[in-house]
Every structure is written in structure tokens, then in C-alpha cells.
Amino acid sequence: MDTPSLFFLIVFAVPMVILLFWIIRKDKKNRKWGYIVLSVIVIAALYVAFFKAPSYHEIFPNIK
């Protein structure tokens, strides 16, 4: 992972997952479905980030 990817992960993605986890814990009725949805979102995001997203150097080949 490049530096911009790590910056996005630390500044935006991790706090968003923590916030969603906290909101799910507040909901006593549908907690199980919330965890399932959150897990699917995180797994899909990791899959796209690691396997489907092109490399920075493929997008900007002239910038070193």
C-alpha cells in the first residue's frame, strides 16, 4: 500500500468502522444484522483495495 492509501485508511476508514461499530452496539434489536452488514462492507472494501484497485504508478506513469 502506498502512503496515500495508508493515510486514507488511518484518517477515514478506521474511524468510520469504529463509528459504525458503536452505532450497531447501541441498537439492541438488530445488532446481529448490523454486524453482518458491517462485516460484508469491510470485506468488500479490503478486496477492492488490495486486488481490484490499480496501482498509483499505473494511473500516473509519468510521476515518480
Summarize the entry for a quick read.
With 64 residues, this protein is mainly alpha-helical.
Description:
The chain is mainly alpha-helical and 64 residues long. It has one domain (3-59). 78% of the residues lie in helices and 0% in strands. The chain has 3 helices and no strands. The chain has helices spanning 3-26, 31-52, 56-59. The longest helix is centred in the N-terminal third of the chain and has 24 residues, at 3-26. The model has no long low-confidence stretch (mean pLDDT 77).
> Structurally, how many domains make up the residues?
1
Order of helices and strands: HHH
How many β-strand runs? 0
Mean pLDDT: 77
* Beta-strand percentage range: under 5%
What composes the largest sheet?
A: none
Shape designation? elongated
Detail the topology: elements first, then pairings.
Blueprint: H1 3-26, H2 31-52, H3 56-59
Keywords for this entry:
single chain; 64 residues; mainly alpha; 3 helices; 78% helix
